[in-house]
Amino acid sequence: QVELVESGGGSVQAGDSLRLSCEASGFRFSSYSMGWFRQAPGKEREIVAAISWNGGRLYYADSVQGRFTISRDNFKDTMYLQMTSLRPEDTAAYYCAAAWNDGAFPYRVTQEEYAYWGQGTQVTVSS
Known about the structure:
There is one protein chain. The chain contains no helices and eleven strands. The protein is an all-beta fold. Strands 2, 4, 5, 6, 9, 10 and 11 form a seven-stranded mixed beta sheet that branches.
């Protein structure tokens, strides 16, 4: 059974750092590009970052560029999101997701393109 489990969320102060992890099981991890999404109250779910199957190609939303770093370890079937210089506007539920790699694109940036989703982990940043 496919499972994506996020961890590492919590409540922090502005300027602090957090590292989110997403552990995958039940599918061939290296056959999928991966992504992080987030959704704040009253907001649409939005792409945060994405990474190709081998970690060679990366995408970041403008709002997190320079502050967040996405990475993956295919030996551990795990994806990470290192978040630094956190701001109150980063407060949201963060979800990891997997998209089938068919060779057309190195990564995907819309939620409709993702096949599997985790349950989410809450990140709250106070000022």
